[in-house]
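Re: the multi-chain job from yesterday

Posting the exact lines I submitted so nobody has to dig through the queue logs.
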Amino acid sequence: DAGITQSPRHKVTETGTPVTLRCHQTENHRYMYWYRQDPGHGLRLIHYSYGVKDTDKGEVSDGYSVSRSKTEDFLLTLESATSSQTSVYFCAISGGDSTQYFGPGTRLTVL
Amino acid sequence: GDSVTQMEGPVTLSEEAFLTINCTYTATGYPSLFWYVQYPGEGLQLLLKATKADDKGSNKGFEATYRKETTSFHLEKGSVQVSDSAVYFCALRGPYNTDKLIFGTGTRLQVFP
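And the result, structure tokens for all chains:
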């Protein structure tokens, strides 16, 4: 299994609070991704990174920001959480061979 | 833009039945195609992939053939097991994207003994 961990695995928070999710990899892969998974939508790309300090938006980036200061860590921040951001969040990594490896997910509930 | 369409589930089968999950795509150029599987409570795992037309991906008894003429990548297995119960996602990677994947909505498979 690819070495990808996500923290926390579960989080309950209130509307308007900031939330940061962490993705950590031990594979030294260049590309990292954040997705959200919602019923009826499959997985949708939020943001991705193609190197340290190099990030770009995906299809559902509004309300989210990311940072990557080290190869191994990719942080996803919800500046002011809303109920529509209740979801399961997955991190993925890729070494550039087109195969993505996924972390175990973080279940976020915004009340 | 690029997109993937999967058959809606759930697909309910008895053990040892034949499985087909349909997947069609819309893309410019010649994308790479993937099937991922998600077991309950887990992240997605790559099941198989194909990178060019007429390629057949296979793994764990599952197969899918890249059909450019019908823009399809249907997943098949000759004899399913209870342990195959999961959600299956078809995905494509466009030739001009930086490893970004576009996923279908997923198809839940339930296999009963």
